[in-house]
Design a protein that fits this description.
The structure holds 2 protein chains of 2 kinds. By secondary structure, chain A is mainly β. In chain A, about 0% of the residues lie in helices and about 45% in strands. Chain A starts with 8 loop residues before the first strand and ends with a strand. In chain A, about 35% of the residues are buried. The chains are: A mainly beta, B mainly beta.
């Protein structure tokens, strides 16, 4: 059961900027819990892309950036590349569920 | 280097049971929070269970009362006992490491496929 809402798909030409939104509620993102982002390439396991709203793990290109304000968060890909074509998921913690929640997922297509 | 390797998936009839294992290397399972996340075919990610370093366990409503998460310190392995399986439990099951004190899944295994036939 997905509690965080994302757009089903976004697309852009190589080099363009795309953003993915992630909207939660008062028991998760609105309660101050951080948002994290994952990239899932076709046929592979998810990979941590952004943690703590805006931090990149070692090895993640700086064209990926994250932000959070209130109940919403965003992932931006600046300078889209062909290898960025994947599914992207946001994730947070939900106090009412005492567990973790994922977004509905967004498919990024490079035109 | 951190590695997580799941095993134990397969085909099982509705109502049956299965136990998944997740062998960890490069860190100590019991010092971290460990979780199971699943992904039904063509669907999104669903968190299903966590075991904290202190031993507390939590479950998603969809599996509560049917699944049990546990760990073995000597084998540095995480488990998921799945009982009363249903067709809707068909999914790839991933184990994931959550650094203690944090809330994100830092490392993931490659996943193991569970298929429940009705």
């Amino acid at each position: 059961q997905s509690v965080l809402t994302q757009p089903p798909s976004v697309s852009g030409a190589p080099g363009q900027r795309v953003t993915i939104s992630c909207t939660g509620s008062s028991s998760n993102t609105g309660a101050g819990y951080d948002v994290h982002w994952y990239q899932q390439l076709p046929g592979t396991a998810p990979k941590l892309l952004i943690y703590g709203n805006a931090n990149r793990p070692s090895g993640v290109p700086d064209r990926f950036s994250g932000s959070k304000s209130g109940t919403s968060a965003s992932l931006a890909i600046i300078g889209l590349q062909a290898e960025d074509e994947a599914d992207y998921y946001c994730q947070s913690y939900d106090s009412s569920l005492s567990g973790y929640v994922f977004g509905t997922g967004t498919k990024v297509t490079v035109l | 280097e951190v590695q997580l390797v799941e095993s134990g998936g397969g085909l099982v009839q509705s109502g049956g049971s299965l136990r998944l294992s997740c062998a960890a290397s490069g860190f100590t399972v019991s010092d971290n929070y460990m979780s199971w996340v699943r992904q039904a075919p063509g669907k999104g990610l669903e968190w299903i269970s966590v075991i904290y370093s202190g031993g507390s366990t939590y479950y998603a409503d969809s599996v509560k009362g049917r699944f049990t998460i546990s760990r073995d310190y000597s084998k540095n392995t995480l488990y998921l006992q799945m009982n009363s399986l249903r067709a809707e439990d068909t999914a790839i099951y991933y184990c994931a490491r959550v650094p203690r004190g944090f809330e994100y899944f830092q490392h993931w295994g490659q996943g193991t496929l569970v298929t429940v036939s009705s």
